[in-house]
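User: Could you go from structure to sequence for me? I need the amino acid at each position, not a summary. Structure tokens:
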């Protein structure tokens, strides 16, 4: 059985402090995977990486058959070439792809710490750019409509909401979200 890894958020996963997997190792373990571009600062697209020469040679035909082959595919390739220019993850001249993913993770960790400080319970440790928190059912709609998060599950008196930080998130963005939540918690929103 072949192993395919959907890598829409692969940059955030690989740069997570909780991760011990490297891109070269993933390339050896998976038969195919995608490198997400859109969720990591690129205009559009994902790169498909495969180890199987037959799949690689058939890919343009398969994509065209399913109406996914871009007429101007070079633009997609240029983005990925620029995104991976520079050093490997963690090096001083780190490539933009890894740097952007790290920003998403760092802002998520800041958000997670702030949520806990405000008395919200996290459902799991924030290890990448996603934070899941339990919020009172009565606050969930205001939180999600204002901050753009989504309700992930309904637990009666509480809702689990998912916050996702992006490559372009700033500490100011997080601090503004936390200020809104503090106001909401104090009953002034």
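Assistant: Here is the amino acid at each position, in order:
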């Amino acid at each position: 059985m072949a192993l395919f890894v959907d890598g829409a958020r692969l940059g955030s996963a690989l740069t997570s402090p909780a991760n011990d997997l490297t891109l070269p190792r993933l390339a050896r373990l998976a038969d195919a995977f995608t490198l997400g571009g859109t969720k990591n600062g690129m205009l559009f697209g994902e790169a498909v990486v495969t180890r199987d020469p037959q799949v690689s040679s058939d890919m343009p035909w398969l994509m065209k058959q399913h109406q996914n082959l871009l007429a101007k595919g070079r633009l997609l390739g240029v983005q990925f070439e620029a995104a991976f220019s520079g050093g490997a993850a963690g090096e001083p001249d780190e490539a933009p792809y890894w740097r952007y993913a790290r920003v998403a993770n760092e802002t998520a960790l800041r958000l997670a710490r702030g949520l806990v400080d405000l008395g919200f319970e996290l459902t799991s440790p924030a290890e990448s750019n996603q934070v899941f928190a339990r919020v009172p059912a009565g606050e969930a709609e205001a939180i999600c409509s204002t901050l753009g998060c989504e309700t992930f599950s309904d637990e009666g008196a509480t809702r689990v909401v998912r916050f996702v930080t992006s490559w372009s998130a700033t500490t100011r963005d997080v601090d503004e979200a936390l200020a809104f939540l503090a106001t909401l918690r104090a009953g002034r929103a």
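One structural detail worth keeping in mind: Helices lie at 10-15, 23-29, 53-65, 73-83, 96-117, 137-147, 171-185.
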